[in-house]
Amino acid sequence: MRCLIFILLLSLPAFSAIGFAAEPVERIAATLNDKIIFLSDLQRHQTFFENAGKNMRGEDSKTLLDRVVDNRLLRLEARRFVLQGPTETEIQQRLKVLRERFKTEAAFEEALGQTGLSLDELKQEIKEQLWVEKLLQERIHAFVFISPKEVTRYYQEHAADFGGKKQEEVEPIIRKILSEEKRMTKEMEYLARLRSHAEIQVNLQ
Prior knowledge:
The protein is mainly alpha-helical. Helices cover 62% and strands 6% of the residues. It has one domain: Triger factor/SurA peptide-binding fold (Orthogonal Bundle), CATH 1.10.4030. The chain is built from 8 helices and 3 strands. A 3-stranded antiparallel β-sheet has the order 2-1-3.
């Protein structure tokens, strides 16, 4: 009887003589709080939400995985704290911008096919991204404040970079630089707190 069962298993398409799965099994990049992040999730994030031209090799793949993990953590926070989610208009506007990253509509459709995403699934991903942006705006960016003393100190330390222009002339530029630095610092601190309470297992080599 056991011999008969074994022969039947080998005859099924999903099995082979050297293992159970004949079809390739998707590689797991990491787990986050027992939720799986597949290597294909990194590819999708890279294709549609990262700068064009990057590849996923060596350290780049690990760096990309870090950003995907951070993004997943922020998505969970957004669902908890952002009461007003993205509107359909906002989603369509972002989809339009995303489409324009590709040279042709055919290239966009090819990217969907390569990542295994349907248009509706991509729209859901866009919705999640917008939700994260709302979270960062409401909980971090809205509380970034640059004092006049900070502007003056930066101007004095970098006066040579402004070609002799007066502080009043370059103050908007200085405020933008300092605001971006503060936002980045606060985001990193926020993510560090989230990571400290998360269970993350990385499987990339």
